[in-house]
Design a protein that fits this description.
3-stranded mixed sheet; 3 strands; elongated; alpha+beta
Length: about 90
């Protein structure tokens, strides 16, 4: 379910303060976060976030196309191995 327009986008306060401080100083370093539910704002463009996926921190460089999405969308939690691994055995027909 979408968040109400009148409430505005959800961004964790600590994360927003870090980005604002880095924008004021002009500093560009990676920001570690576990807040996958935070919305990407225009202030985040150009920053690299290390987003936790439950096991490791995945680097996400924010571009203009990502504004409006959530941080967790770019840090997958499941690894796709491939389909049909058990059926890849070769069968010889004689």
């Amino acid at each position: 379910m979408a968040r109400s327009i009148k409430k505005g986008p959800y961004v964790e306060d600590k994360l927003l303060r870090r980005v604002e401080r880095m924008n004021q100083t002009g500093e560009r370093r990676q920001i570690r976060t576990s807040s996958r539910r935070s919305m990407i704002l225009p202030e985040f463009v150009g920053h690299t976030f290390l987003v936790h996926n439950g096991k490791a921190f995945i680097a996400v460089f924010v571009t203009e196309n990502m504004v409006g999405h959530r941080l967790g969308e770019f840090s997958p939690t499941r690894a796709f191995r491939r389909h049909g691994a058990a059926t890849d055995k070769t069968v010889s027909l004689k």
